[in-house]
TrEMBL record:
Protein name: Protein kinase domain-containing protein
Any one GO MF annotation of this record: protein kinase activity
Residues in Protein kinase domain copies: 1-219
Organism encoding this protein: Linum tenue
Domain of life of the organism encoding this protein: Eukaryota
Composition bias, Polar residues: 79-91
Ranges for region Disordered: 62-91
Amino acid sequence: MPWSTRLRILKGLARGLTFIHECSPKRYVHGHLKPTSILLTSDMDPRIADFGLNRLACNPTTAEESSSFEPPLAHTESSRTPSQCSPYPLTPTNAKTNNASFYYEAPEMASRSSASSSKPSQKWDVYSYGMILLEIVTGKSPAAILNASEMDLGKWVQLSIDVSKPIGDIVDPFLAHDSGKELQMAAVMKIGLACVGGNPDKRPSMRNVGIALEKAGEE
């Protein structure tokens, strides 16, 4: 998949999450975003799925509470209907990916028993988006990196940057054909690292992520 297509998917996904967070009636939280939650049309426009029918019964009373919502298609560049979407997720589904959703979950989700973290937050989606972004750019799954290096994908990317690894050694080898786009790739990875920060209060909003991606695409 060329760099332009990957960037298109990331921008479309950011627009979709921005709509869910800011333009939907009660500012919903997806809460379980992962690669298998993303469907692609034949034009490679992303569609966000996997909200969960069990949440249809939810009746949130605050903007940050989780609920179920199917966003309209206005957030993408295509006018295709859901029936025209590819039935295939961004990453093939198998037993391992089904049981490994936690690789894309924000760390604070593991401590939901505390009062401050029990309510679903849009920053959970930002973290999940950041992990998906880094996976798309590096071509490495969070599970594989954790098993090989005992660190999450975000920390692996940050360490690679800190030790001044060439961009070509960090990104997906298939992107070697996209010469001249290294600055864009580096800028996009920095956006991803901001999204997966340990402090949820310091993670950017999805609107700001989308703006940053547009600027990165101009470099």
